[in-house]
Amino acid sequence: MPDSNTLTVTGLEAHAIRLPLQTPYRTASGTVTAVPLVLIELTTARGITGRSMLFAYSELTLKPLLELVRNMAPQAPVSAATLEKQLEHKSRMVGNQGLVGMALSGIDIALWDAMAKRHQCSLVELLGGEEHDLQAYASIGFEGARHCATHASQLARRGFHGIKVCIGYPTVQEDINVIQAIRNAIGPDIKLMVDYNQCLSLAEARLRLQMLEECDLYWVEEPILSHDFKGMAALNQHTGNALQSGENWWNCFEIEQAIDLGAVDYLMLNSMKCGGVSGWLKAAELARVHEAPLSSNLWPELSSQLLNLSPTAHWLQYSDWWSLLMKSPLQFSQGKALSSGAPGAGTDWDEHIVDHYRLPL
Ligand code: MG
User: Fold this and answer.
1) 4: pLDDT strictly greater than 70
2) Domain limits for position 182
3) Is 107 in the same domain as 141?
4) Which stretch of DSSP H or E encloses residue 61?
5) More reliable by pLDDT, 314 or 28
């Protein structure tokens, strides 16, 4: 982090909120019915507050994640650089994956937000990048062929040039029916991606991917467990489909291992899992070296800045799951995410919304 010795952290607070989700988002590996978030606020000696938030995915993990973040608060004022070293040391034995990895990512993002605000610029400017509009794709859950087609038509009318749909129905024929219904609805020019959300065995994935080769898919995401790099590499050798994965990888070592094994054609990062801004930047450098196109998962406000700093930026995922909370939700036009240039990491929230949905945890 540039200048991190000059940023003094005086406190760290975390709160939990639960936002409603208008329509549950169903996938082959679970349904998102609400949006439980841990909000992190990091105060500094110069009166600047760095913010970030973590999507806890479910009620099961909300309170443990909240408590983990609270337990990482410094006991006395400390430089950002020292805080990072202290947290790295504290987590060395337990490891930096899972909820610990998410908590560390959240604190890292809040530190970067404070640093950018201190320089009164966006994260992109702070790091010497240039902001530009990004191509964005929208996602559709498990809705069956008819509803998926209707939903895809609506997204196409809104100007999206890429649409991703969750599949992994009981039979491959049902997967194909959904894909064909969407393709008929959106025409030949819009990119169509599919996401199995890790639901297939390797043997089943081999069969299904072979049958999907005629479907003109832009990518097939997480057909098997995301950490089965060898399985993904074996699949990749025998399929004509481009494979996408990475949203569930925890750090740059995993990303490097997956790339080295030839597990994927495309990479996708989740800033809340990959080590925050610092982890993303390392991964983006790996992607540059290996010429791997890099896309984002969730949190478009922060992800758009991170993709602007990524030499192989590919697609931004459009998601409005917590737009309600954001002070400046990312704006989209004709399928492109528009650069905002606002100071910070794009992580500021609306206090009224927080007050309304705050949980007594
Ligand atoms: Mg996915």
Assistant:
1) no
2) 125-338
3) no
4) helix 59-71
5) 314
User: How large a percentage of the chain has pLDDT more than 90?
Assistant: 94
pLDDT recorded at residue 1:
63
Supply the CATH number for residue 105's domain.
3.30.390.10
For residue 232, being part of any structural domain is answered with yes
Q: For the residues of 70-87, what is the DSSP string, one character each?
A: HHTS-SS-EEHHHHHHHH
CA 195 to ligand 1 centroid distance, Å? 6
Q: Assess whether pLDDT exceeds 70 at residue 5.
A: no
How many domains does the chain fold into? 2
Quick check: is 345 in a domain? no
**pLDDT mean over 292-320:** 96
C-alpha–C-alpha distance, residues 25 and 23, integer Å: 6
Decide: pTM greater than 0.90: yes
CA of 247 to the centre of ligand 1 (A): 7
Separation of CA 85 and ligand 1 centre (Å) = 32
Domain identity same for 170 and 34: no
Looking only at the bridges linking them, the beta strands covering 49-55 and 78-79 are unpaired
Cα 32 to ligand 1 centroid, rounded to whole Å:
13
